[in-house]
Amino acid sequence: MCSSRLNGYAHGKPASCPPARLEHPIAQLAATGVPILLLHGRHDMTFPVSGVQRAAAMLPSCQAVVLEEAGHMAHVDQPSAWLDAIAHFLG
């Protein structure tokens, strides 16, 4: 929550927060130049794996890992593989 919303007004004007979503998230991430890990479950019904593949193609510093036997909760479905992917990325 924005702190200006706590009192309802900021400097005599109605308070507002920045948008909850970035306008161009992939471009903004790519511009950072930092290494990025996209860790995804193949059977995720909320966020299809095709979106991860498209994002990875647009992020030069990205490593995409798809866990074949996992869904949206990949860290629960395949905890060892999830941790291995993170360790490899950080290693």
Helical content band: 40-55%
CATH architecture group name? 3-Layer(aba) Sandwich
Counted up, domains total 1
Radius of gyration, rounded? 18 Å
- Sequence stretches where pLDDT stays below 50 over 5 or more residues: none
Q: Which structural category fits the helices and strands?
A: alpha+beta
What is the count of DSSP helices, taking H or I runs of 4+ residues?
Answer: 5
Give a written overview of the molecule.
The protein has helices at residues 3-6, 25-32, 49-58, 74-77, 79-90; strands at 9-10, 13-14, 36-41, 62-67. It has one domain: 3-Layer(aba) Sandwich (Rossmann fold), CATH 3.40.50.11320. The mean pLDDT is 86. The strands form 2 sheets. A two-stranded antiparallel ribbon has the order 1-2. The longest helix has 12 residues, at 79-90. The protein is α+β, with helices and mostly antiparallel strands.
Brief overview:
This protein has 91 residues and is an alpha+beta fold.
Could you name the key traits of this structure?
globular; two-stranded antiparallel ribbon; 91 residues; 42% helix; alpha+beta; Rossmann fold
